[in-house]
Amino acid sequence: MEKEKNYTNPEYYENRELSWIKFNNRVLNEARDKSIPLLERCKFVSITSSNLDEFFMVRVASLKDVVHAGYKKRDIAGMTAGEQLEAINAATRELVEMQYNTYNRSLLPLLKEQDIEIIHAHEDLNQKQAEFVDKYFMDNVYPVLTPMAVDASRPFPLIRNKTLNIAALIRRKQEDLPDHGRKEIEFSTVQVPSVLPRFVEIPSKKEDGRTFILLEQMIERNISKLFLNCKVVCAYPYRIMRNADLPIDEDEAEDLLKEIQKQLKMRQWGEVIRLEIEDKMDEKLLSILKRELNISEEDVYKINGPIDLTFLMKLYGLEGCDSLRYEKHVPQRVKEIEPGEDIFSAIRNGDILMHHPYQSFDPVVEFIRQAAKDPDVLAIKQTLYRVSGNSPIIASLAQAAENGKQVSVLVELKARFDEEHNIVWAKKLEQAGCHVIYGLVGLKTHSKIALVVRREDDGIRRYVHLGTGNYNDSTAKLYTDCGIFTCSEAIGEDATAVFNMLSGYSEPLSWNRLVVAPIWLRKKFLKLIERETKNAREGKEAKIIAKMNSLCDKEIIAALYEASAAGVQIDLIVRGICCLRVGIPKVSENIRIRSIVGNFLEHSRIFYFFNDGIPEIYMGSADWMPRNLDRRVEIIFPVENEEIKKKVFHILEVELMDNTKAHVLNSQGQYEKIDKRGKTLVNSQEQFVKEAKVKKKKEYNIYQDRVFIPAEPD
Fold it and tell me: What phi and psi values does residue 291 have, to the nearest 5 degrees?
């Protein structure tokens, strides 16, 4: 008899952080793809940089905290925190080198071919450009700058997180020195002001060309004007990253809002975990920075090019360069909802699926707007995790409260890097008369649900929106997400129970349709996987298809391994972190994993279980990660309408056919693009854009006739 497999063997798992770096490499691969428009490629370099910043501020920072605490516990892949940091350091350096090679050797020459020039050394300016830069500096930059010298009477200043700075060594002029005439070299630093544009257009050498210079180069060129009685020996830019993981003790905090406000200020004082410098920086200058910032050599990154490539997002938005970008996508109307009609009437006609950004997010905004004004609406309840800067949903909720309706809003103050933003919204809603909830102690509320309670002729009816993404009208144009409108009585009852749980201590004994974390969701997923495993062992067809952002939960992965070993066919579409390894003999030979990185950020979560020919499909806010299953309030909801089931399954089908934007994980742990030679090109995102534009069902029926719109050939 074969020995029972140990599916928790660390060799069967990929380290979470190294898997994330592989994801960021896939993002960078888009910048290296010559078939993509040039400014789109620049955008992906910018995204790679901003991703890396957040990774260091949170994930690397937390690993350093673990090392400082002397904690030796090993992770899912059997690595200590120290071992992880060492591996991360090596992998990140490879990533950064590839990033700057892409920028310097590929993108800059191609930009120049398009008569777009970025000047990285002020010495390269011609006379006309130099005069412009010097005048711009004196008129706009000089009044804002504050040089900070360091000496016996002036301690090393606070260098703020993520700010770009210029460090200089200065020597006082001979006539200003004391009688003994020693030429003291002193350190000084000046922050490149974030209130000014970093990317400045200057006169071009070509008549139709466009030329830009970075703000730090302007300052470097004119830095002597900040130290009139000194000689500047050398000056180089640098940037630091600090630990930005907020240590909030909710049990001790009397007022969570005030506690978070206090901790936000402390972010600027967090431990320095990364120092980026120009690769030619003077060694004496570097040694001063390392000493004063208390940072070791292993955390210093020498950069061959401009520090912080996120400025390329400004280049991406350059006016007059439409030919260098994809054609702008306009989200299409949701066919079941006529513009301007009573949205509640449309929902009563049947459940409505929305697929963003291919279809417009406007119905969700309109749902809350109409509810705020409708005299028959008695109450609105909603969870908010991240919202846009000028959110129409916030405005409608405030108006609803002013109109006398019962409005309850859970604003998640602990949404990382949106804390300050959400505090502002919470106060605004409270001032308007909304009942604002800050969530459950120790848990983030990540679920996406809105409930409208309406008085109708036949009694009270509850209308519910459930989604996979945030109530953010801006990111809804960039992220792929799904949402459903329903007035199902069973789901309405569950929605009420969710909000009672969030606002009080009411915990239902059971649920009708919704599955809620942290108490019930893990068990539900394991039960669904185990059912497919049982069916496979009984010789029945068994299949799982799951789409999510990240997969790193050990218990879920072990259950998938057991299912695969039993013969369950498993297809996973995982955008980011994936700790599961494919191709392990007798363990994961029946598992296939792909990651799609394209023009839109893949964000929807969809879970399909074959169930012996009676498929069950779920969607919702949770990934297969410990934090989603154990430490967050998440909602997964079933897709029960048969027509909507077909539509959701079609989303999975098309993404599994993608051979253009998909990377497939191989048994060596590497992601590879699919060989497209001789195949019909399938770009799932382009496919969904085309499908959303089809107006009449009789013209195009993907569900019955299996018509497929191919991508354009190479």
Answer: -70, -50
Q: Specify if 336 maps to a domain.
A: no
Smallest Cα–Cα separation from 80: which of 93, 92, 71, 88? Answer: 71
Q: Which residues contact 236 (CB under 8 A, 6 or more apart)?
A: 166, 167, 168, 277, 278, 280, 281, 282, 285
CA distance 702 to 279: 55
pTM for the full model? 0.92
Mean pLDDT over the full length of the chain: 91
Q: With contact defined as beta carbons under 8 Å apart, do 483 and 354 qualify?
A: yes
Q: Clarify whether residues 405 and 422 are in a common domain.
A: yes
Per the CB < 8 A criterion, the answer to whether 494 and 506 are in contact is no
Look at residues 483, 510, 537 and tell me which one is the last residue of a structural domain: 510
Distance between CA atoms of 600 and 467, rounded to whole angstroms?
Answer: 17
In this structure, what CATH number is given to the domain that contains residue 410? 3.30.870.10
Quick one: 322 and 286 in the same domain? no
DSSP letter assigned to residue 103: I
On the CB side of 535, CA atoms within 13 Å amount to 20
CA distance 498 to 516: 8
Which tokens is 535 given?
């069916």
Record the tokens describing residue 427, joined without a space.
């106060």
Sign of the Cα pseudo-torsion (676, 681, 684, 685, in order): positive
Q: Which of 532, 523, 594, 521 is nearest to 563 (CA)?
A: 532
- Whole-Å CA distances, 534 to 540, 562, 568, 607, 681: 9, 10, 9, 18, 37
For residue 588, give its domain range: 516-699
pLDDT exceeding 90 applies to what percent of the chain? 79
Are 172 and 230 in contact by the 8 Å Cβ rule? The answer is yes
Question: What's the CA gap between 191 and 237, in Å, rounded?
Answer: 9
pLDDT in tens, 434-456: 999 987 778 899 999 999 999 99
Instruction: Give the model's pLDDT for residue 176.
Output: 52
Q: How many CB atoms lie within 10 A of CB 367?
A: 26
Long-range contacts of 507-516 (CB under 8 A, 24+ apart): 513/488, 513/637, 513/638, 513/640, 514/466, 514/635, 514/636, 514/637, 515/618, 515/620, 515/635, 515/636, 515/637, 516/447, 516/633, 516/634, 516/635, 516/636
Q: Which residues are catalytic?
A: 446
Q: Which residues of 386-416 are buried (b: 16+ CB within 10 A; e: fewer)?
A: bbbeebbbbbbbbbbbeeebebbbbbbbbbe
Residue 88: inside a domain, yes or no? yes
What total number of domains does the chain contain? 4
